[in-house]
Amino acid sequence: MGVYLNSTTAYTLYKSEMAKPYFVDKTAMLKELFPLVEEGNSYICVTRPRRFGKTVTANMIAAFFSQSNNTTELFSACAIGKELDCPHYQNQYPVIHISFHDLPKRCDSYEDYISRIEERMIRDLRQEYPMTEIEPEEAVWDILTDIYAEDENARFVFVLDEWDFIFHQDFAHEKDKKAYLLFLRNLLKDRPYVRLAYITGILPIAKYSSGSELNMFVEYTMVTEEKFSSAFGFTEMEVDGLYKRYLENTENVRISREELKEWYNGYHTFSGERVYNPRSVVCALRNNNPGNYWTSSGPHDEIYYYIQKNIAEVRDDLVRMSAGFPVQAKVREYAASSMRLQTRDEIFSAMVVYGFLSYENGKVSIPNRELMERFDEMLQKESSLGYVNRLAKESVRMLEATLAGDTETMCEILEMAHNTEVPLLHYNNETELTAIVNLVYLAARDQYRIEREEKAGIGYVDFIFYPELDKSADCIILELKIDHSPEEAIRQIREKQYDLRFRGYLGKESEYTGKIRAVGIGYDRKSKKHSCKVEIF
């Protein structure tokens, strides 16, 4: 068994994955690969955001096809084990499985990186095919061609995970990236020994190349192709099953099914099926705690990376999206590959590809609470965002004033927002007022779950603030009015009984024990003045 060729690594890792309490069976995908393996010279590239199951799926594919281990028992209870033609393909092929994110002990250059890969491949081939004469300086593709010339059964399944890893490394310069593309071309394109080349990455593969180096690959992305979509991310039905397991295995249940949806849903396939971030769902259930498990670096630096080159283009859109409003955009997935990100659409394209935004019906939006918290952190901490950052900082004072019934300070902060000279603040409709109100209450999200246009009583309330950290804290119901008084907003809250959201149902006591504050905010377009009123129910 080699390091790359017929390695036991994929088998070991996938077997461990299957033993975990929240494993989801995605083996049905293998059936879609059977005809491609049968035909030979098949090339597919699956791109997804980080943490959407690309590596787990790559391990599954390598373990299933590889001759390294007998996996009959491993897959027998899975969906693929019930397919009649499963034995015809299972463990029948030499598999070269490479994780391109692995680095040598000291990696100061592209030469260090690629030499390690080539040397390991050649060592494996020498061991597996000792009868083939291999010269010391031969290229690995020449060696593979010689092996095939001697044995026509030596047709390989290549499983190459995170093929685009090198494009994100500081040691790789432009000439190195071109050399790497040429390496992949020489290894895979029009080679008779290739039965299937399955590669994964984040960014689309063909767009890295200005020529035809990798044009043999068919690309499958989350938003442009339906095929293979069910293999990545968790569907509603799968999360239902996981949540059932969670209820069975957890003594002190702290997560509701609705919270899982609020925190981790928001993505969708090409056909419109909703999908969840799989890593985050599993981490939340295992830890019995919903939280941010997806981003692994600093609190907001990854998101900020994509907007820093042209903040002026996207600043107002960030406010709208943070308020829960989708924004019109022309998203082209390939735009992210250049990393120049000069225009608004290029910035949003990159953020969609990396999973920071979702894209549907020509609009981009922040997909879920997990990402919303990251955007909130950026708005509050990144001073280069100008007026947005200043207003976000004022949000601490706005919440304090609201809880104290200090309407004078509330109006002062809203006037400051209005007097900021940006296109967003024309206040032509309630949507724009809603966006600003959302921004000036940004800090409240640390203590409250804020819902917009939620069903309450006999109508829909503009904003409702549910205390999360302390159930005895004051609850807030906020209604907006343009060209109407805040007293009318308070009257609407009373008449439509929005406060029922905080009352106990069917005689049960409410979990919320604090005061209920009704907040009315009005804006008069003629006088261009705000007015506020706070009442305690």
Write up what this structure looks like.
The longest helix is centred in the first third of the chain and has 19 residues, at 110-128. The strands form four sheets. The protein has a five-stranded parallel sheet with strand order 2-3-4-1-5, covered by helices on one side. A five-stranded mixed sheet has the order 12-13-14-15-16, with helices on both faces. A three-stranded antiparallel sheet has the order 6-8-7. The mean pLDDT is 88. It has helices at 9-18, 29-39, 54-65, 72-75, 86-89, 110-128, 140-150, 174-188, 236-249, 257-264, 278-287, 301-307, 311-322, 344-353, 369-381, 387-404, 407-418, 430-440, 486-495, and strands spanning 42-47, 95-99, 156-161, 194-201, 218-220, 234-235, 267-268, 274-276, 327-328, 358-360, 363-365, 448-456, 459-467, 475-482, 516-524, 529-536. The chain is 39% helix and 16% strand. The chain has 537 residues and is of the alpha/beta class. It contains 19 helices and 16 strands.
Record keyword descriptors for this entry.
537 residues, alpha/beta, 5-stranded parallel beta sheet, 19 helices, 5-stranded mixed beta sheet, Rossmann fold
Outline the secondary-structure elements.
Elements: H1 9-18, H2 29-39, E1 42-47, H3 54-65, H4 72-75, H5 86-89, E2 95-99, H6 110-128, H7 140-150, E3 156-161, H8 174-188, E4 194-201, E5 218-220, E6 234-235, H9 236-249, H10 257-264, E7 267-268, E8 274-276, H11 278-287, H12 301-307, H13 311-322, E9 327-328, H14 344-353, E10 358-360, E11 363-365, H15 369-381, H16 387-404, H17 407-418, H18 430-440, E12 448-456, E13 459-467, E14 475-482, H19 486-495, E15 516-524, E16 529-536
Parallel strand pairs: 1-4, 1-5, 2-3, 3-4, 14-15
Antiparallel strand pairs: 6-8, 7-8, 9-11, 10-11, 12-13, 13-14, 15-16
